[in-house]
């Protein structure tokens, strides 16, 4: 495989997952307790074993896919292209993103004659063939709840005159100023109460990259329905290239089963060249009261202090970078935040998106620094 000057492999087919080159990260000890994680694909060989799964095995287990023609509300159609080893819960997770019908309320008719499949069943185990027509029954959550005022924090505010999105805009003008210290009590509560599923033990001497999922690594609203195309171009090469220097934590503002389904479908739990330390969901977040652009608003935040409290001695303010497409998630840790352009409409922008390739160069450039606290990550694209 060819490589760029930055050491990042140049993938000729974005749906492949192979990688060559890079520093060896050494053996990893698994810290996952029994039953901590329900894998949503059929089991594969352990990446720690000497006989790691080769490209053919990984392609067979993760990349082979089949198509489903999902019909909802009589005439709304959602063509899906999904790995055949995916579970029914994974299918429901994708449909929840596309339709707003939460996974627990969905009924999928047509996969098994005369009965409803279990969430833990796999498509291949049920004998589902490509092209199967599936009828989705369910009502979106928003239709079952009372209407509420629109949330001004559902997306980033539009840029003002002279703002250069993602580059040198003055972040001080856009930052949320937290107006209360009540968040400290909320932090103590979630540190004490929230379960953290350790998938792979932290490694000594590594910095930490905290990664948002939706619109950062994954286009959750991709109308093509093809899971392979929902991944941001260069996803696996990016993670494999930085993994020798950084531990990886995924943090998504959604429920655990949705997070788990997505990272499993994307092949992020079984890749032989990188490992995810843990994945966090919305239960590790809380709401803060802030002043932004002259308005007082409430919004949720991803407090890095939660990670630092749960992994003392490994991660801290000095060695953590939080990558997200929404800067509001940095409200308590602005210096650690790195805003990335949102990856949306992957069905039309797939070939044009090079964000992860550029981000790889930046992270590798700063990986040897003893501390990251003096960096202004808002300038990351302009660093030479």
From TrEMBL:
- Pfam family membership, one: NIF
GO terms (BP aspect): regulation of proteasome assembly
**Which UniProt keywords are present, listed alphabetically?**
Hydrolase, Magnesium, Metal-binding, Nucleus, Protein phosphatase
The chain positions of domain Ubiquitin-like read 66-137
Question: Where, by residue number, does the polypeptide cross the bilayer?
Answer: none
The residue ranges of the FCP1 homology domain are: 202-366
Phylogenetic lineage: Eukaryota, Fungi, Fungi incertae sedis, Zoopagomycota, Kickxellomycotina
Query: Localized where?
Result: Nucleus
Does the keyword Cytoplasm feature in the UniProt annotation? no
Organism equals: Coemansia aciculifera
Report biased composition (Acidic residues) as residue ranges.
Answer: 47-61
Q: Does the keyword Nucleus apply?
A: yes
Q: Where is this region: Disordered?
A: 1-63, 145-169
List the protein's name.
Answer: protein-serine/threonine phosphatase
- Which InterPro entries does this one have? FCP1_dom, HAD-like_sf, HAD-SF_hydro_IIID, HAD_sf, Ubiquitin-like_dom, Ubiquitin-like_domsf, UBLCP1
Cofactor(s) listed: Mg(2+)
Residue ranges under compositional bias (Low complexity)? 16-46
Q: What is the reaction catalyzed?
A: O-phospho-L-threonyl-[protein] + H2O = L-threonyl-[protein] + phosphate; O-phospho-L-seryl-[protein] + H2O = L-seryl-[protein] + phosphate
EC number(s) on record? 3.1.3.16
């Amino acid at each position: 495989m060819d490589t760029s000057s930055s050491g990042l492999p140049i993938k000729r087919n974005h749906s492949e997952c192979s990688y060559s080159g890079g520093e060896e990260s050494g053996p990893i000890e698994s810290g996952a307790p029994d039953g901590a994680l329900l894998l949503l694909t059929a089991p594969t060989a352990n990446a720690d074993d000497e006989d790691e799964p080769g490209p053919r095995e990984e392609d067979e287990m993760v990349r082979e896919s089949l198509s489903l023609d999902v019909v909802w509300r009589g005439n709304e159609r959602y063509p899906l292209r999904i790995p055949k080893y995916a579970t029914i819960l994974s299918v429901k997770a994708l449909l929840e993103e596309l339709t707003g019908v939460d996974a627990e309320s969905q009924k999928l008719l047509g996969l098994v004659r005369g009965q409803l499949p279990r969430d833990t069943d796999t498509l291949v185990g049920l004998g589902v063939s490509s092209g199967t027509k599936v009828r989705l029954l369910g009502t979106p959550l928003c239709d079952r709840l009372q209407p509420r005022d629109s949330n001004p924090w559902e997306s980033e505010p539009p840029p003002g005159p002279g703002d250069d999105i993602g580059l040198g805009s003055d972040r001080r003008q856009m930052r949320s100023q937290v107006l209360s210290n009540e968040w400290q009590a909320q932090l103590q509560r979630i540190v004490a109460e929230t379960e953290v599923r350790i998938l792979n033990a932290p490694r000594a001497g590594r910095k930490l990259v905290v990664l948002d999922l939706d619109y950062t690594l994954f286009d959750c609203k991709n109308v093509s329905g093809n899971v392979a195309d929902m991944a941001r171009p260069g996803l696996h090469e990016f993670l494999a290239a930085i993994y020798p220097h950084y531990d990886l934590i995924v943090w998504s503002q959604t429920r655990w089963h949705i997070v788990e389904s997505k990272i499993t479908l994307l092949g992020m739990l079984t890749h032989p060249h990188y490992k995810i330390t843990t994945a966090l969901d919305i239960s590790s977040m809380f709401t803060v009261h802030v002043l932004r652009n002259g308005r007082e608003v409430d919004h949720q935040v991803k407090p890095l202090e939660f990670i630092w409290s749960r992994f003392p001695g490994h991660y801290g303010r000095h060695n953590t970078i939080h990558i997200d497409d929404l800067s509001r998630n940095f409200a308590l840790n602005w210096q650690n935040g790195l805003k990335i352009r949102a990856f949306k409409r992957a069905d039309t922008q797939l070939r044009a998106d090079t964000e992860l390739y550029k981000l790889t160069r930046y992270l590798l450039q700063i990986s040897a620094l003893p501390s990251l606290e003096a960096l202004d990550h808002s300038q990351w694209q302009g660093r030479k």
